[in-house]
Specification:
Elements lengths: L8 E5 L4 H12 L3 E5 L7 H7 L20 E4 L8 H9 L3 E3 H9 L3 E6 L4 H14 L5 E3 L11 E2 L6 E5 L4 E3 L2 E4 L8 E4 L13 H13 L6 E5 L3 H7 L7 E5 L4 E4 L2 E5 L5 E4 L4 H16 L4 H8 L10 E5 L4 E5 L4 H14 L4 E8 L7 H4 L11 E6 L1 H6 L7 H8 L5 E3 L2 H9 L6 E6 L9 H9 L1
Parallel strand pairs: 1-2, 1-3, 3-4, 5-8, 5-11, 6-8, 11-12, 12-13, 18-22, 19-20, 19-22, 20-21
Antiparallel strand pairs: 6-7, 9-10, 14-15, 15-16, 17-18
Length: 460
């Protein structure tokens, strides 16, 4: 299949996934006949599939869509093992790929670079793609967030010698409990950090760390592992000692904050203003630079490019601002991400008060046994707020949480806890927003809170 990217009939089971729908669009644009099914599809997948006439006519699973005319089926991770379309494909002997397996099939003859880690991998991948594009390099890619200047999150071609892949540690598909990043068989790996998350998938810290050890051990001869040397666990994994693999540590890039702007301090006294900020982003810059160096990008070419990088979608994204207020949205939901993002905004604007609001939305964050991992993670905020929806807890079949459970877990008596998005909005609007910043952190929607209206009301 890696030799023929021009035609074929491919069916996607669970076409609405963030990567799945982008892969479907890319194959459609390559001339494949693409069909798909899903039981629920949300924005932005819904509109994007509709724009290419790839949206299923009705939601649900239809075994009759699976016929011997199909060349392959691509199975998404959210489909169940007993999916009727999957059963029909197996019965007919049709080749079934997970999307990581399919990406590998496509890229067997390319240099494969995988960006992994508990946090920062989307931003680092996006930085690398931005630098490569800025410098007119030819490359394929897979990244987990929308990026300015890129129409699609997946790019596959015959002639690019390189593919850059954001690779995660979670299960590949219902049929395959292998971490996704293992299927890419990378020549170069960057691991940004290890912070336990997804309690439902990896019930212990040891089982979580094991996935990254497997990845590091899989790097071939003459390969490279690039890692954050300030992460204690990575320092061990990165320096395990294989003479045939280059170990390249990095730390936060030297920088300063000047008049509310972050400036990179490069060798020779050169300074480069950038649009991203925070210690975690200075680490991301260093990691991206280390990868780009291995790919032959000179220092000046890197710095000139990174100066124009605006960030990936929903990663410390500036929703709106005026002379005295900045409103940011961030995808942060895991404890380490919440802490890093809140610290970043507080350090960037030390003379402004910070109101930081985090939504507990994932299986891990709503689990009583895991909740204590959030201890003191909102300490950088002057006013700390947590929102959660009890219906989400019920839907995930978890033990109910009380406001006191959350205050105790965050170790903050003055924590404001909300379960109603209207009351949350009213609370935020009750403040005087003179010389204050708002940080909204979630992988969800704060119960359907209209962020556009909230932004406009605050900026009035």
């Amino acid at each position: 299949m890696s030799q023929n990217l021009s035609s074929g009939n491919i069916h996607f089971i669970s076409i609405g996934g963030s990567v799945m729908h982008n892969l479907a669009i890319e194959l459609h644009l390559k001339g494949f006949n693409v069909t798909g099914s899903d039981d629920e599809i949300y924005e932005p997948s819904l509109s994007r599939l509709a724009a290419y006439n790839l949206l299923p006519g009705s939601m649900g699973w239809y075994p009759e869509k699976i016929t011997t005319s199909l060349d392959a089926v691509i199975l998404g991770m959210h489909a169940r093992e007993d999916n009727p379309e999957l059963a029909k494909a197996r019965e007919l002997g049709i080749k079934v790929y997970s999307y990581p397996e399919y990406i590998f099939e496509h890229s067997q003859n390319k240099q494969r670079v995988v960006i992994a880690g508990s946090h920062g991998k989307t931003t680092i991948t996006s930085m690398i793609l931005h630098v490569l594009k800025f410098n007119n390099r030819l490359f394929d890619y897979l990244v987990g967030a929308q990026l300015e200047g890129f129409d699609n999150m997946v790019k596959l071609s015959k002639n690019a010698p390189l593919i850059v892949i954001e690779g995660d540690e979670y299960f590949t598909s219902p049929l395959d409990k292998t971490p996704k990043f293992m299927h890419y068989q990378p020549h170069m790996v960057l691991i940004s950090g290890i912070a336990w998350d997804h309690f439902n998938v990896f019930p212990t810290w040891e089982s979580y760390v094991k996935q990254f050890e497997l990845l590091a051990d899989s790097i071939p001869k003459a390969g490279a592992i690039i890692f954050d040397e300030t992460d204690n666990m990575l320092e061990v994994i990165g320096r395990k000692g294989r003479a045939d693999v280059a170990a390249i540590p990095y730390a936060a890039h030297p920088s300063k904050i000047s008049e509310g702007k972050t400036v990179l301090l490069a060798e020779g006294g050169k300074e480069f203003p950038v649009l991203v900020f925070g210690e975690h982003n200075m680490k991301n810059v260093s990691g991206a630079k280390a990868v780009c160096e291995r790919l032959g990008i000179a220092d000046d070419a890197f710095y000139n490019a990174i100066s124009t990088f605006k960030g990936a979608s929903k990663r410390l994204e500036l929703l709106g601002s005026n002379a005295t207020v900045n409103i940011y949205r961030d995808f942060a939901h895991a404890p380490s991400k919440v802490e890093a993002t809140a610290n970043a905004v507080q350090e960037q604007f030390p003379n402004r008060e910070l109101i930081a609001c985090a939504e507990l939305h994932t299986f891990s964050s709503l689990n009583k046994a895991f909740l204590k991992q959030y201890r003191r993670k909102l300490d950088a905020a002057d006013i700390a707020v947590v929102y959660y929806n009890p219906e989400t807890i019920e839907h995930k079949r978890l033990e109910p949480l009380s406001e006191e459970d959350i205050r105790t877990a965050f170790k903050r008596d003055d924590l404001h806890v909300f379960t109603d998005s209207d009351k949350l909005a009213a609370f935020l609007l009750s403040h005087n927003w003179e010389n204050r910043n708002l940080l909204l952190m979630s992988s969800g929607t704060f119960g359907g809170l209209n962020l556009q209206t909230l932004k406009e009301d605050i900026l009035k």
